[in-house]
Structure formats: C-alpha cells, structure tokens
Amino acid sequence: MPRPRVVRYVGLAGSLLLAVAAWLGGASSPWEPTVTPRTIFAGENGVVLPLAWLLGTLLLIGAWLAGMRAPPTARWAYVTAGLWVVPLLPFLPLGSYDAYSYACQGWQQAAGLDPYSGGVAELGCPWAEAVAPTWLSSPAPYGPVFLLLAALAAKVGGSLTGVLAALRVIAVLGVGLIAVCLPALARRSGVPVGRAVWVALACPLIPIHLVSGAHNDAVMAGFVVAGVGLALSRRYVWAAGVLLGLAIGVKATAVVVVPFAFWVALRSPGGLSTGRWLSTGGRRGDAVSCQTGAGGGPPGRAGSVHGGSVREGSSGARSLRVAIELAAGVLAALAAASLLSGRGFGWITGLTGSGVSVQWTSPPTAIGMTVGLFGPDAVPVTRVLGIVALAFVLVFLWLRARTRDPLLFTGYALAATVLLSPVFHPWYATWALPILAATLHRHLRWLVAPCAVAAALCLPDGYNLALAVKSQGAILMTAFVIYLAWKALHEAKNRTRNRAGADHAVHRLPGRDA
Q1: Which residues pair with 294 in a beta bridge?
Q2: Number of other residues whose CB lies within 10 A of the CB of residue 363
Q3: pLDDT tens-digit readout, 151-181
Q4: CA of 416: how far to CAs of 113, 364, 421, in Å?
Q5: SS3 for 289?
C-alpha cells in the first residue's frame, strides 16, 4: 500500500512536469496547434515538451489511482488536491483553446455586442487570432450567467493575459464551491468524506482542464453540487432552485438535474413526514447546509437514509410546494440573468452550436462513424437516436429515483447525459464526477477508469488524440457499446432467472414441511 506522502509528492511532481509542458507548449496566441503526434515523432517539439507532458500526465493519474488504495482523510485529500493545482496556475492553458473563446465572448458582452448573434469573425474581438477556427463563426453556446462572468473577466482583466487570469480565478471559485459542498452529500450518502474528496478533487481532470484550461464546466458543476446540497435542507428549496438556475445559465446541460432535485428535496428531513423520515434511519436534525458542510452521521447501511417511497412519506400538498419552490427558483435565476445580460432569452437559440465537432469519443457519434465506414454517413441519425435514448433513460432514472437514492440517480442522470450527448470532450466527465464520487459505494472503477483515460486525451495545446485514430476509435467504441448492451441484457436475464428460482423454492416450502 503506497504511503500518503509518496502519493502526494509523486502527483505534485506530475503537476510540475505538466506546468513545464504548459510553459513550453500550452495553448497560446495566435492559434497554431504545434504539438501533434506527427510533430512529436518528427522531433519538431524537441524532447523536453513531449516527455514533460507524458510523464506528468502518467504521474498525476498514477498518484490519483494509488491514493484510492489507502483512503485518505478529508483534510489530507483537500491539501493534496490543492497542491496539485498550484503549479499550473501561472502558465498557459492546457488541453484546449476554449479560454480564448471565453475571453472574446466576454469582451463582446462587455462592449455591448450580442455574442448570440454571431461569432468572433462577424462581431470582432481584439484577440480573435487566438480563437480556434471551429468557433470563429459560431455564436456563444453558453447561457447568460457565464456571459456575465466572462464580461466581468474582460473588464477586470483588460489585456488578454489579465482576462485569462480572471477566467482562471472564476474556474477556481467553481472548484472551491464543489469542495465546500461535497462533504454534505458524502455524509448524507454514507460515503467517507475523504474518499469522496479524493475521487472528485484530486482527479487529474480538475487541475488539467477545469483549472489550467479554465473551462466553465467548473462553475456549472459548482452550482449543481451546491444546488443539490441545498435541496437536502429543510427550508431552502427555493435557494436550491436559484443555484440550479445559475448552473443552467452557465451550461444548459444542468437542466437534467432539476427533476431529480425535486426527489432530493422530498426525501430530505423537511420533505418527509417526521414518522416516515425516522423510519428510514435518518434524524430530524440532519438537514444539510452545504455552506458549512454540516450533516448528520452516515446511515446504518449504504443508501438506507434514502429508503422508502416518496408517496408513502409526503402529501400532495408538500410535493406541490416543493415543485413550485424549485421551479420558481430556477426560473427566477434564469430570468434575472437574461435581463441583466441584456440579451433576453435569445441565448436559447445558440445552444445548438456545440455539435460541430465529430469525434468517436461520443458513443452515438462513434456508432454513426462506424456505419459510415461501410455505407452512408449516419452520424446525424445516430446523434438524434442518442438524444431520443437519453430522453428515455432520464425518464427511467427519474422514476427509479422516486423509490431509491435520488442523489445517486442524479449522478447517473448526468453520466447518461455525458455518454449519450452528440459531443464529448474530456472535461465533460466532470459533470457527473462530484456527485458520483459522493454517492457511489461500489463499482467505482466505472467512474475512475473513464476519467483517467479522458485526462490523457489532449496534448498540451489542445490536440485531441482521438483525432489520430478516428476509424479505429469509432470501431472500438462501437464494439464496446455492443458489449455493454449484451452484458446488461445478460445480467437482466440472470436476475429474472434467479428471482423465478427463488419464487419457485418459496412455493415448494409448504409441501416439504407437510
């Protein structure tokens, strides 16, 4: 079992090496991807840059995985995760040029232009040469909350360097919000806080993409975790709705959390009747405040704190009150942000702009690419089918969450959204990461392995390694999806067979006793 000190400083060494990679070859202005597999093997990037990226990534991922074998204390996990972030703060963004798009959208908003009416090529920007060509003609695909934050960064930062620094501060604050609210969710689910903090915050995706890359997913995830945490409290369902509305105002993806937050609020001490809550193993004083991280002790067994049916413990009037408070909070936050931004609800029309990328890292896209290798282009069709499948999966999960752990099923809903969306970028894995880290009791490898792979997908200045193996990757992903579908059907048949066998044995007992 690795010593905690070794884990901490091996990961720190990895972070320092990644800082070297960011210094030598991070995403810089003007846009010019200079680090690709071809340039690396041709020796155009020298030796230090590719080795610093490769060893740094391997050390950081290895240290994260090793730390799970010896569950740390929460304090140790917080300090270690913080140490791994620090070396990356002063250097160029790693893994993506998105921060430059954010800077231009913020400048446009601050200048009184409408980022939803056109891209950088149409509206202009002092730093247009740093924006990736994919986004030059694309309107902003984000909500009004993020536009306001990006405009604030543009005003405060002034120069491109200052704006990037301000955007990184905003991302760090988003990660900080996750850090503050995570313990409440872990305690409520009976998951060790130290393990939840380690899995969520020490994950290499956090320092590489959320902090160094300054992705706005950090802000969205922070609002989601805080909103779900407040939904657990007795009196602040409306505030939970406000926070979830702010999350949607950053990225509309967060809307999938709202229906599950309804069950979370109903299953809280303030949502269940006293008798029903006591019968589930909770205590009436267990209301959670994510600001303080306070909460009751862990339940007697995994998930027992959420046991029982909502119908049995809540009246129609209480359900209606929770639904109204939650919806009012969400709508109020979105309306306020839309009005403050001066763009009204025009931002909704820009939400389709993120589907430009075609990569096999999205399972529906991979299936379409595989079909296209042997016939017509099927990507548009499989993407639509993926969205339809996502709708069915979300409804199924929502109905199951009614009688099971709604926190866990919130994480499942976010994970399904990541997997079935038309586009996948490595930092999208952070959408479900915090909530699943705080609620999963077993099968953690299904969360950890994809995050570890995603953390290694992007070269220092943003080249996605998936582009180097398009056909092979599409076929492998399609085969993996087929395997998972077969495995799910096989296990479902086994469960049905075992249940039928158990019922048959029960029916035979009276005859044997006679």
Answers
A1: 289
A2: 22
A3: 999 999 999 999 999 999 999 999 999 999 9
A4: 36, 12, 8
A5: strand
